[in-house]
Design brief:
The structure holds 2 protein chains of 2 kinds. Chain A is globular and about 60 Å long. Chain A folds into 3 domains: 47 residues, 2-Layer Sandwich (Uridine Diphospho-n-acetylenolpyruvylglucosamine Reductase, domain 2), CATH 3.30.43; 118 residues, 2-Layer Sandwich (Uridine Diphospho-n-acetylenolpyruvylglucosamine Reductase, domain 3); 116 residues, 2-Layer Sandwich (Enolase-like, domain 1), CATH 3.30.390.50. In chain A, α9 packs antiparallel against α10 and α10 runs antiparallel to α11. Chain A is α+β, with helices and mostly antiparallel strands. Chain B is elongated. In chain B, α1 packs parallel to α2 and α2 crosses α3. Chain B has 6 helices and 14 strands. In chain B, β12 and β13 form a beta hairpin. The chains are: A alpha+beta, B alpha+beta. β11 of chain A pairs parallel with β1 of chain B.
């Protein structure tokens, strides 16, 4: 058997109590779409599983004071079906729609996706570009807020310890004139792990034809999802133009350092894709706002 | 979402067309591979067929029922097929080598003809006309010379019941081949299928991705006993051919297969399937049941060739190794002195 005890809890408090009691031998399970495979392949070991899928207080998507707040147990399907996300944060809606397969999206949660900490995880890339923060409960009763930039320590390694901590909520701020897009490259059109995932979030200054803010997250080009800081700086440095986008893409190309991979391709090929896809995703992001092409106010580049 | 294949903002795409043709022998190469069948017509004019033929999803059970129904002049829905039960059905060989429509089809047709002989004999007696003059169609036996001379199949079966005659037939068929000698010479197949496929592709010269826009597949099947099933074979084969050309690859690392799961040994999903236009060509095969031969494997064969040719037409570069992946495309575009003048100068 892959576990000794399987406990389904009815309250958050119950979950934290059990984690505290078992002192590292118990572990939270959400949808289980990653964890169960890992347990079966003996990549992870556990004595007790604490199932938190029955906690409705962890499933929500809401807008509050210019922020979007998402409960950690919200499934990818729920995110992908949210009119709020398609209208205001298209990059996250697109990301949630791309995860795995319909079956996985119905069961897998955004919280689980984050704690599983694969660098190119679709929602992770989008949330990194959104500068998201997470609220984490500790089993001593305390609570902390961790920015996304500090969450990922390595491939499969998140700062959150699922034997003692519970990821409760993900939140991020909406930006003025926000434009976003997810650029995804894979070896076929569905059911394929990404060769490249690029999440781009922009805040546009229409009057002066430049950007207030620019965030580009690219993966997998490192053990953790990577924000392209040089490229972002370039994009803020002057007025928008095709040449500016090309410069930013070149900066992303320079910063990317993916290894030679038999499954994903060699370094030169993967770097080239970073350059091409950064440019294309920037153009797409500028041309759309939410789910609607914004003809009247579109930025000419 | 920007799926980089989507047309629009800034892709550098090149289109090309290519053709692949093939011919393929039907049946086991140079070896005997017979099929047998039993057919029984019952009092209520329904029919039972026994055949060893295993339907693996291509629709052989349907086709064999159609052949018997056509031969015996009854409705397809009145045919029962007992198939692939080694306890009771006669040997019909393997379902492979694109052979079942041709060989088991012939066996069932012959078995139905054998049962029909009893019906004709009884009919000739009752109608007082020679057997050669009779035709069995729509549950009715008619004289070809005088259509008014007729008797229903029901009546014939009743008369048979009266005098204790059973309407049972058996048949078997083996294609005429000659084993290959030590120089590889002989007659390996009794008949061949022919096909040509035309493919149109679009290549993204910046990401190397290939989109198959259209496939037109013309296949000579002798006679399409079930046209929809033939189209199904052609479409399925073409999609598999597309996967063979662009996706399927066993990836080794130090002798170990690192993509041994269907999550990373890739074949096309429904979203990757191109538009396949099937053209059924019927060049009657005289040795086949109602002129039919085979299409199972032929459907797969020309596609990869057509795709490779189409990519060559689009880019001016030949690929001799499958799968043709985006990485290989980009590498070739770089090394060939084929500098695409339109390519963005990064």
């Amino acid at each position: 058997m892959y576990w000794e005890k399987y406990l389904k809890v009815k309250t958050l408090h119950e979950a934290m109590e059990i984690l505290k009691l078992y002192q590292g031998k118990a572990r939270l399970i959400a949808g289980g779409t990653d964890l169960v495979l890992q347990l079966r392949e003996k990549k992870k070991r556990v004595s007790v599983l604490v199932d938190i899928s029955d906690l409705p207080e962890l499933q929500y998507i809401k807008e509050e004071h210019g922020q979007i707040k998402i409960g950690a147990m919200t499934t990818h399907s729920q995110l992908a079906a949210s009119p709020l996300l398609w209208e205001k944060v298209i990059v996250l809606a697109q990301a949630a729609s791309s995860v795995g397969s319909p079956q996985i999206r119905n069961v897998g949660t955004v919280g689980g996706n984050i704690v599983n900490a694969q660098p190119a995880a679709d929602t992770v890339v989008a949330l990194m570009a959104l500068d998201a923060k997470v609220v984490v409960f500790n089993n001593d009763g305390g609570e902390e807020k961790i920015p996304f930039s500090e969450l990922f320590l390595g491939v499969g390694e998140s700062k959150i310890d699922p034997t003692s901590q519970l990821l409760k909520e993900i939140s991020f701020s909406l930006l003025p004139e926000m434009r976003s897009s997810l650029g995804r490259l894979a070896r076929r059109k569905a059911l394929a792990l990404p060769i490249l995932n690029i999440g781009i979030v922009l805040s546009v200054n229409k009057k002066e034809n430049r950007l207030h803010e620019a965030r580009i997250c690219v993966a997998p080009v490192a053990p953790v999802p990577m924000r392209m800081k040089e490229a972002e700086k370039t994009l803020l440095s002057r007025k928008l133009s095709d040449e500016l986008l090309i410069s930013a893409s070149k900066a992303a190309f320079d910063a990317a350092d993916p290894r030679n991979s038999k499954l994903r391709g060699n370094t030169a090929y993967r770097k080239e894709l970073v350059r091409v896809m950064t440019y294309r995703t920037l153009k797409t992001a500028l041309a759309t706002r939410g789910g609607v092409g914004d003809e009247a106010g579109s930025i000419t580049v | 979402m920007l799926k980089s294949r989507a047309g629009g903002i800034s892709e550098m795409k090149k289109r090309g067309c290519g053709i692949g043709s093939m011919w393929y022998g039907i049946g086991n190469t140079g070896l005997p591979n017979p099929s047998g069948a039993f057919v029984q017509v019952l009092d209520d004019c329904t029919v039972i067929i026994h055949t060893g033929c295993a339907d693996i999803g291509q629709g052989s059970t349907t086709v064999l029922a159609q052949i018997a129904a056509e031969e015996l002049g009854v409705n397809f829905n009145d045919i029962s097929v007992i198939c692939a039960d080694t306890g009771v059905t006669p040997d019909a060989g393997k379902t492979s080598a694109s052979r079942q429509t041709y060989i088991s089809g012939n066996a069932v047709r012959k078995a139905a003809q054998s049962a029909k002989e009893t019906i004709f004999k009884k009919g000739a007696e009752l109608l007082q006309v020679p057997e050669e003059e009779l035709i069995l169609k729509n549950y009715q036996l008619n004289s070809l010379k005088n259509y008014n001379i007729q008797i229903s199949l029901k009546e014939i079966m009743a008369k048979c019941r009266e005098d204790g005659t059973l309407v049972i037939g058996h048949g078997w068929f083996n294609p005429q081949t000659k084993g290959l000698d030590k120089r590889g010479q002989g007659i390996p197949y009794a008949t061949y299928a022919f096909a040509t496929q035309w493919v149109e592709v679009e290549v993204d010269t910046e990401t190397g991705e290939i989109d198959i826009l259209n496939v037109v597949a013309a296949h000579d099947v002798g006679k399409a006993v079930n046209p929809m099933a033939v189209e199904g074979q052609i479409e399925g084969g073409s999609v598999m051919g597309a996967g063979y050309a662009l996706m399927e690859e066993i990836i080794l690392d130090d002798g170990k297969i690192i993509n041994s799961s269907f999550s990373n040994y890739l074949i096309p999903t429904i979203k990757d399937v191109p538009c396949v236009n099937s053209i059924i060509v019927e060049e009657e095969e005289v040795t086949g049941p109602f002129g039919a031969k085979g299409v199972g494997e032929p459907a797969l064969i020309p596609t990869a060739t057509a795709i490779a040719n189409a990519i060559s037409n689009a880019l001016g570069i030949r690929f001799y190794e499958l799968p043709i992946t985006p990485e290989k495309i980009l590498n070739s575009l770089k090394t060939a002195n084929n500098t695409n003048k339109n390519q963005r100068d990064f």
